[in-house]
Each structure stands twice: as C-alpha cells, then as structure tokens.
Protein 1
Amino acid sequence: MKDYIGIDVSKATLDVYDGKKSYKFSNDEEGFNSIVSIVEDISNAVFIFEPTGVYSYALTQFCALNSIAVVIVPPKVSKDFAKSLNVRSKTDKIDAQILYKYQKHIEPNMIKIPQFNEKAIELQEMLNSYEELLDATKRLKNQLESISNDNTLLRTTINNSIDYLMDQANTLFEKIEQILLNDEETKERYNALLTIPSIGKKSAIYLIIFFQKYSGANAKEITALVGLDPVYRESGKYKGRQKISKHGGERLRTLLFLPTLCATQHNDRIKAFYTRLVSNAKAKKLAVGAAMRKLILLAFSIYNSKQSYRALEVEYAN
C-alpha cells in the first residue's frame, strides 16, 4: 500500500499532510529532506501536489533526482475536488489535507517519477516573459486608441514605449530560437516540424518547448495538457454537444488556431480528417478543435521520430 503525502506548495513554504499530522517546511532542499524524514519507506511514497509554476519546480526536480513518485493534480481538478467535499475554507494547511484525500481518485497510471528538464523550464520562463511583453504592447495599443490625436506628447510617449517593448520581445524570441537551435538534436526536430504544412517557425518553437517541458508524456496526456481532450455531457435522454476541456495550454491553443484553419485547407491529412467530420454533420467549431488535436498529435509524432512529414498516400484513418 502506498504512503500518500499531500503537499501544498507556496513561494517560501510547503504545507504537508501525511494522513495523521500536518507539517510546515521550507520550500527548499532542507524542507524536501524533512518530508522524506517523515516517511517510513520513501520508495513506497507518493507526493501529491499542484503545479504552481516556478514555486514547484524545485520540488519536482528533487523528486526526479531521488526517484520519488508523484501525482501532479491540475489546479482546476483540485478546486473542483474541494467543492465536492463541501470544503468552504481555504488555507495552505487545508489544501494539503485535500490533496492527501485525492488519493482515492488516483489510478495506478497517474503515479510517476517525474522527468525534469531544466533547460526546458528555462526556455518556458523566457517564452512566458516574451508573451508578457506582447501583452503589455497590446495594452498600450488599446490605450492609444482612447487618446485624441491632438495629444501628441502622450501619443509619442506611448508609441515609443510600444517600439521599445516590441524590440525587447523580438530580441528575447531570437535568443530563445538561438538557444534551441544550438542543440543539434533539437534543431533536427525543429526542421522536421517545419515540414508539416501550416506549421511555421514560431509554431515549431512553441511546440518544441511544450514537448520538452512534458518530455515524459504520452499522446493522450499531451492532448489533455494542451486542453484539447474531449468532454461529454449526458444525463438520461439529454445528450449535450461534445466540447474540449480547455484545461491548460491556452497560449498554445491560441497560437495554433490560425495554423489549424490553414491546415484544414492545405494539409492533406488534416484536411481529409476535417472534411470527414464536417460531412458527418459535425459542427465546424467542433471539427476545428478536433483538427487542432490531430495537428498537435501529428507534430508530437514527428517531434519524437525526427522524421519529415509525409504526404497522405491513402485515405487517412482516424
């Protein structure tokens, strides 16, 4: 029987619950070793925690280096689980207890020793900063629209800020590209992705960083991580429309929306798949979501194999 440990991760501390007692440790190697010390057999332990961005990276790396099994619970899943328990209060201590109780919903295939790619995390952080710069630029452009043309001083100031932020964003993205392509194996994967009709340089870089970050994921997990796993709503005679979960991967989905539309017209595999769905009376919005899922899985396969895209020779089967 597994020894489950619920861990709520914050910036400086870890709230820990082992089913009997609550603890608070520092969010560093000393704190991680303190958790290990309360477990009788670390090889039988399973740490349950949420991915809290940079705050949980060190814990994930510690578990990877020490072969400690984990279950990483998406924040929305954890929040919904707390609601199902009718828990109204929210503290770090309570959150750790809720994560501990989540063990009843854990399937064996959910328990894994994490893989930690420090370079991929660094690139993801750079990509996040790049996106923040673009968002800041967009906010300034929206602000500019509300300023009269007569206010030349303010318009000049904002335009200068926009130009500066765009220069910073472009410089950062070039640095990301340089770091990626300096590695020969990554460059090979990058070039393979570019052979996919509708996938350009920016999309290929985003996909590579995403796949590197979740290097241990399989195709089904990749689909869920990008929020394209199907969700069904049925009750009695009622049958709702199938939707995608949208749990995570928002930026990647947004980036790939236009390439997916392009793929439904110019990528023979995606076009055949999309056309079949539409001809079977599937709503176009649903068909586009399914086409995006197919495009990402196609990219995932090519990323792993490092083989160039091959045009469709026979009727594409789902």
Protein 2
Amino acid sequence: MAQAPVSMSIRAEFEERFADSRAMFERSRQVIPSGITHDGRYLKPFPVYVQRAAGAHKWTVDGHKLIDFSMGHGSLILGHNDPEVLAAVQAALPMGTHFGAGHEGEIAWAEQIIRMMPGADRVKFTLSGTEATLLAIRVARAYTGKSVILKFEGHFHGWNDYLLKGERPPFEGAPMPGIPRETLDTVSVVPADLAYVEERLSQGDIAGVIIEPSGGSWAMVPLPEGFLAGLRALATKYDAPLIFDEVITGFRWAPGGAQERLGITPDLTTLAKIVAGGMPGGAVTGSAALMRHLEFSDEPGWNTTRKVRHQGTYNSNPVAAAAGVTCLRRCADPAVQAQCDEMATRLRVGLNGILADRDAPGIAWGDSSVFHLALGVASTDVHLGDVQYPSGMSAEALKASAQGPLTATLQQGMLIEGVDLFASGGLLSLAHTDEDLDRTLAAFDRVVVRMGEDGLFESV
C-alpha cells in the first residue's frame, strides 16, 4: 500500500486547537520516555491530555469536550464515573486501600466471576491483563510439564516477554528488543488454520494454546467460521489447555464473555479491564484441575515442585474489589451488552454508509460492541452471520491497514471535531447516547470529505 501524504491543513488546525496539550506533552517528554505511559497513546505530533471525564465524555486541558471511544482502553463499559461504581469506591476508601490480608470483598468478587463465567471454578487475582496472561501460561506449563505456548498471528495478550511475539506484522522474525531469543523460542506463532494447528500440536511439546476468542486485537482480525469449535476439539485431543484471553471480551461480549456468547468453554480464562470496574485489576479463572496448581498442598513435594508461585502486592486490593464486584453485578444483566452491541452495529453501518456515499476507500468492521476503521484501503466486505468484515485481506494486511498511514490524520481530524477514537477504532459503553452517535457520524463525514479534498485517497 502506497504511503499517503499527511494533511497539513488538518495537522495545522490540530496543533492550534490543542496547544495546551502540546505544552503538556513537551513537559512530559522531559521526564517520561516519548511523553507517554502506554505505547497505544502515541500520536504524532503529540497526544491530547485529559483533565476530567464523565459518562461517555472527557475534557482536555485545552477545554475541548470529546466523545470518548477509548473508554479506559475498554474497561469502562458502564462509562466514566458510573454512580454505583463511584459510590462503592468512595465507601471502600476510608476503610483502607491495602490490608496486606484477605478480606470479604475479594471473596465476593471471585464469587461473582464464578457465577458469570462458564469456565470458572476458581479465581486468582492479578493487577493487569498482562499479568493474567503470564500467570495463565505458567499454570498451563505446570499442568502439562511442557514448555511451548501456541498463539495466533495478530493476537494481543499483553506485553510480557512471551506473548508479544507475533502480535504485529511481520508476524515471523519481527525484532523484539529486550526479550531473549531463548524466551521467544518457547512460543510458536501460527495462522488460524486448523490443519496447521493440528500439525503443530501433534509434535507433542505444546503446553497450552492461547487465543483471543473475538479474533486478533479485539475482532480486528476475524477468525474463520467454526474455527474456535475446531480448536476446542483439537486442544482436548492433544491434552493442551485452551486459554481464552477475555481481557476485552470478558463481560462485554455477554455477561459470561465470549465463551458464553459462542458456547465454547476454555480450560483457563484471563480477565482484566471490565472485571475491575475501571480500577487496576485482572484475574485468571479456570477448571479446578488446572487452578489446583496455584494452591498449597500437604502432598509431599507439591509446594516445591508442582505449585505455581504467584505474588502481587496490590492483587485484589479492597478498592478494586469494591469497584469490580459492583460493576460485574451490573454486567450480569444481558441488557447491558445488548444496548452496547446495538449502538456499535449502528455506528459501523453508519461509518460504512458515509464511506460509500463519499466514494472514499475504506471500511468499518467489528463485533459485539467494538468497531475498527481502515481508510485508504480498497476492500469489499463479507458478512459472517450479522458481522461485517473486510474480505480478501490476510491477518497481516488487516493489522497493517488499521494502523496505516492515514490513521494519525483520521485521529487528528476526529479530535478537531470532538471525537476521541481508540487509535483507528473504539468501544461502546452504556453511557453513550444516540446523540453521541449522531455527532460521531457527522464528524466522520466532515473528516472524510476534508481528507478527500486534501488528496489523501488519490493513491489508493
């Protein structure tokens, strides 16, 4: 795909309108690498800085109100400062932020997860999704006594040393600064092809299989129809624990996550984001047989040779537990997910309609309550059930297109119009309204027209 030019008019207006954010960015760069604390917030020439948030909106230091589609990187399905979650946090704070001991809140939190997730017999809390996926693969390795983890091209499982491999194109051979080659050799990256998966599993060294059940990068890279059911059967056949990374899909695809929605139960599940109600927190859940490896036992030698070690200073701290259990009790009502799904469908349809009306190359796609956008891409669409996806594009091409040369200009243009995308997509929440969607579609229409007038689609 040809490199598109940058719209100087959009960039110039962006720099003018967000001058206070630029000043804060310059200050940040003096003390924080590249001025950001999460690589996903990188944006040229600078990211915006936010002062406060409420519902489906946030306000920048420049005084601009934005419709938010990042929503705490997907954690805020109820919206910013949901009154019930906020009240639970406010009630927990005076009681203490860290007991250094067990407490009733963590028990209630685990009980709620077990009630909701089909594959959950036991729960162990972590502080993030990255920690959850790291713990899950450690449990799988302890259970099987094997070392190699199987993962899929384009799937994201956090930034731990093992699972960054194969997340971004090129999937094979991409440099991984700071990660030893010996570590990377314990992870095998394969395409979503059942014949390929079985050939790899038959080699007998796979300790576990981890996958985003939504498809790679929260439905950016769709899975072939029937793939998950086939993968479940193969994992069982070769006694390789199947791990669903439900850090984003958990409680968003359904009250019981993608495993409930799709009717496929994994052996282990990793959770974060919604599970903690917007506070820092994650979890690993799974069958009693696998989760046993996190337990102490009087069985001779177990605690030194079989038990998986797991600490974490802030695991299940009482404030996160209060937010988490309150949020999950709300998310147990399937009307929450249904409302968010309906809005996302309307948004995806509207975005594609604008692209067609303006004869602009690109497509919007996604599943459940998420959407992705790729501009400058000539692609027809295909329907898998009621979900629209780009067709004729490999996983590598899909990820490259959604992170392509027009993405920064699209983000800048939408910020000018009062809309904050999560890179080239976004996630819906219960707090979004029909008015928010109308404003977003009108903003997108204006940005697409402007990009066309600047000649950004001419090379496609």
Protein 3
Amino acid sequence: MAAGRSIRRINSMRKRAVTLITMCIAICMFFSACAKKTSDMNVSDTQLLLDTVVTITIYPETGKNPMSFDEARDVLKTAFDEIKRLEDLFSITIEGSDIDEINKNAGIDYIEVSAETAEVLSEAVRFSGISDGKFDITAGPLLSLWNISGGGYLPTENEIFEAIKFIDHNKILIDGNAVMLADVGMSINLGSIAKGYIADKIKALLIDNGVDRAIVSLGGNVIALDETGGTPFNVGIQSPTGDTGELFAIVKTSNGSVVTSGNYERFFIENGVRYHHIMDPDIGYPAEAGLISVTVLSDISADGDALSTAVFVYGAEEGLKLIESIDGAECILVTDSGEVLTSSGINSSNVEFLKS
C-alpha cells in the first residue's frame, strides 16, 4: 500500500510539472502573438517559484519612455528577486518564514512579521468575512491532512473532524505587524491568495522601474500591464475537460488580472475517486458545489485569487451573487455539466469564447 502510494505521488508530481510547463508555453504563445502587433522584441524569463511556473515578459521598446534590453533584463532580475523574497516570507515549508513562525507559535505568542505579511493576512481576513468563511487561510490543518500537493492522503472522518475544529479566520489576531493565532493547533496556509498578492506587487515594481508594457504569469494567476494604449493581451483559459493547453475562452485585458481555479489542477485518485485541492472548510472535504472551473477577472490579482476559491466553494448561484457585489470583479464559471455561466460584466469586448 505504501509503495503504491509512493509511486502514485511521484507520477502525480511528474505529471503536474509537465502540465505547468505546457500551460506556461501556451500562455507565452498568446502573449507573443499579441506582442507582434506592438513590438517584435521582448525580454522574458521563466523560473520555478511559488510551487509553479513563473514567467515575466517585458516589452522594452514600447511606451513613452522606452528602455534598453539590458535595462529590461535588470528589471526582470529585480522582479524575480522580489518574488523569491516574498516567497521566503509567505511559505509554510521554508523554515523561519513569517508564516512558519506564526504557525509554530500558535496559541503561544505574537510574532513580529514584515509589513507585507501583515498586509496579506489582513486582506485574507477581509475576504474570509466577505465570503462567510468559504475562503479561509486557517484551513492549514485540513490542507496538511489531505496533503494534495504531496501526492494525497484520504483521511478518516475523525481526522477531518479534528482538523476543521482549528479553522476560524476570526482567531487570526493582528496588531500592527504583530500576528498570533489564538489557539494551539491552528495554522495558516496562504496558497489561495499569496500568488495574487505577489502578482500585484510585481506589477507595481515594474511600473516603479519604468516598464510601460509587460505580462506576469504565476501559474493560474496572470496580470497585465499596459500604459501604451496598445493592443490588449490575450490570456487563454484552460478547458477544464480538455487536454492540457486546450482553451475554451480568451480573456482580453490591458491592465487587469485573470485568475483561474479548477478541480483539474491538483488532485489524487483513491479507489477510483478523484479528490481535488480546493477544500470546503465547513465540511473538510474537497468542494463539490457543482463547479469545475472558476475564472475571475479583477483589477487586483489578490482579490481574484481569493474570490476564485470562494466562488468555487460557494457554487454558481451564491458565487455569482458574491461577484456581483464586488466592484471591479467579473467571473466565468464552468459547471460539472459543462454549462458556462458568466457575471453581468462579461461580454464580447473582454472575453472571446472558442467553439468546441
């Protein structure tokens, strides 16, 4: 049994690595096709960070203040260094990170953290309140129990019951840059908001360094920057039922964020049943609310990250109500029957649906 699980875990990790790289190539192809209408040249780099494939592409010859390619490469290095710095603060697996220290001191003491950690935690608590806890970063014990990213483990009912007792965003205590979890046994996992928050920070960094046109992809999180008035970027949305790289829609965006969450991204199969990574904090199991893919278009990527998780857990009816209540956010949903639903602001000017 243990050997079989180990083999399944290795195969799952290999498959996921290939999937991430393939999706990255598909996204880059869309970016490149769009870029040719503005500039024949760009500066781009791809690295494995944040447990995903990260690609940043800068178009240095565009805008009011064009930069040299050497300058663009220097900005790229600065951007990737910043991603690594933020990952070192937010990671649950890096010893001594802010989140690691908070988790180790749960129920014991406040931990002084960086301004960025305090900010992302405050935003996470806000979205937990907005979503009635459907999005909750204190689901750390539950996520660790299921261990989806490590190959998967099917817990017992008692183990799930014990894990969900520790989920409560109201017990994240924040006093300036000092943070504490109220109860021993609680733990934070920022996997459902960190990439969006980091994408926003990188966009701001690019602007501060004089970049007028760029695209940033952090796995399922994409954010665009265009101050040139050029052609919008095309961001492909993976078909949740198709092969990797097969798209069912293209989002057109100049300065927005596109975040997609789906049950096809990370999962394991046990006894013929597939268990995915998006957990329902109320019941302790992978969310089964009738959705298989949620894409959120938003001005702020952290918002899109949190909202995509919340909507997936809520389901179509309540999820659409949530999106309609938030300025600057729209969504595209795919139900488990294959039906595509959209919020009121989705139209042909911002999304092209591809024929199957």
